[in-house]
Amino acid sequence: MSNATARAWALAGVVCGLVFAADQAAKAAIEAHLVIGQDVEVLGPLELTFSHNRGVAFGLAGGAGVKLVATTALALGVIGFLFSRNPQRPGMWLAVGLVAGGALGNLADRIRADAVTDFIVVGSWPAFNLADVSITLGVLLLVYLYFRDAEQEEVEEAQSEGGSD
Asked: How far is CA 3 from the centre of its chain?
């Protein structure tokens, strides 16, 4: 394994660990200081609450149980496989670390309590948590990276075809 590859895996691992730790610490603080259903106004439309979610992000597909845990494990495997194919791709370590850390944070909740602790409310949006934010940002970054690389490949291909005339 090259130094660059080892560095990419290490960075992804650090991001994953930081996201996991921040998510679990925030959930523990909410569980220690609020009761289920309690809302605390923070600033403008931002509120803190304490709720349990048996579904996926934002309460969708509630009650999926073991299937949801298996789906999460499969998704982590796919992300790991994609990362292993080219861990040196710029920015990929960050996207993978965000997705993996968030997925593991919510997976830990599901295994421990059969539900995820949600605590952030913005306006009328369903409650969510730091893991959900991390997963969302990581997926958006993955999409961006793939589109950016596809665009670069098209430009390079057009240049090579234009240069062969």
From this structure: 26
> pLDDT by residue (tens digit) across 53-83?
876 655 555 555 677 778 888 989 998 998 9
96: Cα separation from own chain's centroid: 8
Note if the pTM is more than 0.90. Answer: no
Determine how β-strand 46-53 pairs with β-strand 116-122.
antiparallel
CA distances in angstroms from 13 to 3, 60, 161, listed in the order given: 15, 28, 40
The answer to whether 30 touches 52, Cβ cutoff 8 Å, is no
What lies within 8 Å, CB to CB, of 22 at 6+ separation is 130
| DSSP per position, 51-98 | EEE-SSGGGTTTT-THHHHHHHHHHHHHHHHHHHH-TTSTTHHHHHHH
Backbone angles phi, psi at 138, to 5 degrees: -65, -40
CA angle 123, 140, 8 (to 5 degrees): 130
Catalytic positions: 118, 132
